[in-house]
Write a structure and sequence with these properties.
This is HHE domain-containing protein. It contains 9 helices and no strands. Helix 5 crosses helix 8. The protein starts with a helix and ends in an 18-residue tail after the last helix. The radius of gyration is 20 Å and the shape is globular. It is mostly helical and 228 residues long. 29% of the residues are buried. It folds into 2 domains: 37 residues, no CATH class; 189 residues, no CATH class.
């Protein structure tokens, strides 16, 4: 869905009618404030980061294996979908808008993603190495998140500022894309997004069916990717 289509949707036009009755200066200020309130791709990714961190904290803050397994599965589910979404949407934007530096950033981040979950996602909370391995994984992930939030995303937002509405449009597309991607890591898909995208779409339904057999928080059989 394009930014232009969203901005001109009937629901949004209805919401803007009171604004359009204002004097021109007030109208411009109000519309500008509304646009600034829209979620950017940076805000969307940071929301994911905080959610992933919260699931990690649930695992390491208890010794209850059942609680650890449920939130460990949720951690895997969130991180895998976040990573696939970044690989298919955000990293190509790095390459497109940030030149050679963006290509280096994308290449480095893709390699980190493929290493993060491939072992932990298949472990059981009954394994003595379950929590230690998750802590090791999170140590690497925190560095990845720090680099992304402090360096990569500010650089991307600066480049996208030349294209009004692009960051907000990316945020909406990222949310929709996460409903279609796999919910597990698949290192065998490789690091080339030209292969990763089509293969991911083939693997996603398999992952979503397998999620029915996994235990998640609040006794949910399986999270619904279309709602998160």
């Amino acid at each position: 869905m394009s930014f232009t289509h969203t901005f001109t949707s009937p629901a949004l036009r209805t919401g803007l009618r009171p604004v359009l009755r204002l004097p021109l200066k007030q109208r411009s200020a109000q519309i500008g404030a509304t646009a600034r309130a829209a979620s950017t791709i940076t805000q969307k990714l940071k929301e994911d980061h905080r959610e992933i961190e919260s699931h990690y904290n649930e695992v390491v803050s208890t010794s209850d294996p059942e609680h650890q397994q449920r939130f460990g599965n949720q951690f895997t589910w969130e991180l895998a979908r976040h990573s696939h979404g970044e690989e298919l949407l955000v990293y190509p934007a790095f390459e497109k808008y940030l030149g050679d530096k963006g290509k280096e950033m994308a290449e480095s981040d893709r390699k980190q993603h493929h290493e993060m979950l491939k072992v932990f996602q298949n472990m059981s909370s009954s394994d003595p190495k379950y929590v230690p391995h998750l802590k090791e994984l999170m140590t690497s992930l925190k560095e990845h998140i720090k680099d992304e939030e402090q360096s990569d995303l500010p650089a991307l937002e600066e480049a996208l500022a030349k294209h009004p509405g692009y960051s907000e449009s990316m945020a909406k597309n990222f949310g929709m894309l996460k409903a279609l991607v796999p919910s597990r890591a698949h290192p065998s898909a490789g690091e080339n997004p030209l292969f990763e995208g089509p293969l991911g779409l083939l693997l996603a339904p398999i992952d979503h069916i397998a999620d029915i057999m996994r235990r998640f928080p609040d006794k949910v059989i399986s999270p619904n990717p279309s709602t998160k």
